[in-house]
Structures are given as C-alpha cells and as structure tokens.
Amino acid sequence: MLRTFSHPLPGEMNERNGEMNERTELEDAPTDNSQQTVSDDDEIDYSSKPEFYDSKLDDRDELWAQKQRSGRISDAVLSCPACFTTLCLDCQRHEKYVTRYRAIFVVNCRIMEEVSQPGSKRKRNRRGSQSEARPSAADTFKRVCCSVCSTEVGVIDEDEVYHFLNVLPSEA
C-alpha cells in the first residue's frame, strides 16, 4: 500500500487534530532583505572622472587601424574561424568562388609542409594506364595554418600568394 503525506494548506482543516491551520502574521510579512536592496548605482560617485574610461580611445583605435592598413582598400578583413585571430587586412575576393580570398601580406599565419593540388597526383600516359607523376611547380602548394590555434586556413602557391579557403571575412 502506497501512503502519501500531505501538509494542510493555510485555512484548511487539519485531519489529525481537527484544528484549523491559520496563517501567522510572520508568514505574511515580507523579508527585511528585499526591502533594503541597495543598487550599485547609488554607490558610484559620478562627480569624479572614471579611472579607466577614455572618450578619445575609439578615435585613436580607428587611426591605428587605418595606419596598419596603409590606406589600402580591401574586400574583407580575414579571421581564423576557430580563434577569431586576424589573418589578413588586405585581400582580394575570388570572382567565381566568393568564399575564397587571395592575399600577399598576412599576419598570424604559419606555412606547413608541401601539399599538391588535389587531382594532380596521377596523370594518364598515352596507353591509358595510370602512373605516378611528380607535381609540377605550378601545382605545388603549401598549407597555411593559424599561428595561434593551428587551424588550416588556406594554401600558399609557388608565387607566394596566399589563397584563403577556410576563413571568416568581415567588413573592411
């Protein structure tokens, strides 16, 4: 047999002793803590100048960013998709593949071992059989990774042009 226990609500008859369960004034009274809540804004002294606030900081940051870009106009500012580190400030968007970019000057990038372009490892000779062929200089790429988190973000070709394939673009 399953027994359930219940406590009578205020104003209900208590079955055990036949008395009414009355609310007391203490139960109805609000707690003193909620009445005496003090806002942090009341404690702030606005008469003195804030120690860590500089109203001209945004203007100086904008000038610094323009100086870093040397007045060049870019299609996007590229960032690592894993850690959001800035990788390139001056790049050009691919005309056909709009998620790809190319650049010459990069930051926070590390060049890894050589990788051949996919599909260029095997070539057919005249008889139709497949044979292993060395990739030509035009087909050789090196992987480019983020220097902060080592996420692969693109490749660099033999002309030292970076091709970014896995990046987050933002407005330039």
From TrEMBL:
<dbReference type="InterPro" id="IPR019370">
    <property type="entry name" value="E2F-assoc_phosphoprotein"/>
</dbReference>
<protein>
    <recommendedName>
        <fullName>E2F-associated phosphoprotein</fullName>
    </recommendedName>
</protein>
<dbReference type="GO" id="GO:0005634">
    <property type="term" value="C:nucleus"/>
</dbReference>
<feature type="region of interest" description="Disordered">
    <location>
        <begin position="1"/>
        <end position="51"/>
    </location>
</feature>
<dbReference type="Pfam" id="PF10238">
    <property type="entry name" value="Eapp_C"/>
</dbReference>
<feature type="compositionally biased region" description="Basic and acidic residues">
    <location>
        <begin position="13"/>
        <end position="26"/>
    </location>
</feature>
